[in-house]
């Protein structure tokens, strides 16, 4: 593997990954709507809107593998989310097929299964249960990736990322994905010899983790960080509200907010990495 393409390269998760990717690849193609800062010697920026197939096709030319991290990472009105999240996913997989790219690693999300109750521990084979248009876009892309695997032989790893935000509430103690573990998860997804079309949850080794990666052990992902180190401070200030329906779902406010309404705004902070 000598050339890695990264969509959504100007986003925060892309920023977490760039250094590690630059160290392992001869060339890293960075694509986004705007150029990320501080390009390294072996990084090349190619501007593209995800819903523009010709631009995506040109951006992925020469890549051996694609990390598809570009999307609207929040709930949004249907007309806004359709292009980047739905059409964009199709464009990435079709361009990968046309270029002979062998593997797509996709930043999916817990919101593909966000309507399940938090009291239910869910695994990698749990059926889709989206909590929003955003979650539905992740279900679509996961199914699209499986279709391209079955019909065209493109392998995929679907990373159902929970939250890469700094833990600051009770929920985050179970669902945190540290930047270091994100890098490891991506590297394991790159290095595993055969992945077919696989799902893995993007979570660290949290003592309170509400999901199971038992069915994805073949990837070799062994997270090292644990949000429990933040527990004393967070729990001392916590005010659990059993009547808050958002706290009863894996998808939090994505599961209880109205369709098309920003969940990030409802939370009052950016859930970096919620998808």
> What fraction strand?
5-15%
The mean pLDDT is 94
Report how far the terminal alpha carbons are from each other: 26 Å
Structural class computed from helices and strand pairing: alpha/beta
Counting DSSP H or I runs of 4 or more residues, the number of helices is 9
Q: Describe the biggest sheet?
A: 7 strands, parallel
Order of helices and strands: EHEEHEHEHEHHEHHH
Radius of gyration: 18 Å
Counted beta strands: 7
CA-based shape: globular
Structural commentary:
- This is NAD-dependent epimerase/dehydratase family protein.
- Belongs to the NAD(P)-dependent epimerase/dehydratase family.
- InterPro entries: Epimerase_deHydtase, NAD(P)-bd_dom_sf.
- GO terms for molecular function: oxidoreductase activity.
- This protein is of the alpha/beta class and about 280 residues long.
- It has a single domain, classed as NAD(P)-binding Rossmann-like Domain (Rossmann fold).
- It has nine helices and seven strands.
- It has helices at about 10-25, 55-60, 80-100, 135-150, 170-175, 180-190, 230-235, 255, 265; strands at about 5, 25-30, 45, 65-70, 105-110, 155-160, 195-200.
- It has a seven-stranded parallel sheet with strand order 3-2-1-4-5-6-7, sandwiched between helices.
């Amino acid at each position: 593997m000598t050339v890695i393409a990264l969509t959504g390269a100007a986003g925060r998760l892309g920023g977490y990954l760039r250094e590690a990717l630059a160290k392992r690849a001869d060339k890293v193609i960075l694509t986004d709507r705007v150029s990320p800062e501080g390009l390294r010697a072996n990084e090349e920026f190619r501007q593209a809107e995800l819903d523009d197939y010709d631009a995506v096709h040109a951006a992925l030319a020469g890549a051996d593998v694609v990390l598809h991290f570009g999307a609207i990472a929040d709930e949004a009105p249907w007309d806004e989310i359709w292009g980047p999240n739905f059409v964009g996913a199709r464009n990435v997989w079709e361009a990968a097929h046309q270029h002979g790219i062998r593997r797509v690693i996709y930043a999916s999300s817990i919101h593909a299964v966000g309507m399940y109750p938090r009291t239910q521990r869910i695994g990698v084979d749990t059926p889709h249960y989206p909590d929003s248009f955003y979650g539905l876009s992740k279900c679509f892309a996961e199914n699209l990736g499986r279709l391209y695997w079955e019909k065209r032989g493109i392998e995929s790893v679907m990373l159902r990322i929970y939250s890469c935000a700094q833990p600051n509430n009770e929920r985050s103690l179970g669902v945190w994905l540290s930047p270091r573990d994100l890098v490891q998860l991506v590297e394991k997804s790159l290095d595993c010899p055969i992945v077919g079309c696989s799902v893995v949850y993007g979570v660290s080794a949290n003592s309170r983790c509400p999901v199971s990666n038992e069915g994805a052990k073949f990837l070799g992902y062994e997270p090292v960080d644990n949000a429990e180190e933040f527990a004393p401070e967070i729990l001392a200030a916590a005010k659990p509200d059993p009547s808050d329906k958002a706290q009863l779902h894996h998808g939090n406010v994505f599961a209880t907010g109205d369709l098309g309404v920003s969940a990030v705004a409802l939370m009052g902070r950016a859930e970096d990495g919620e998808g």
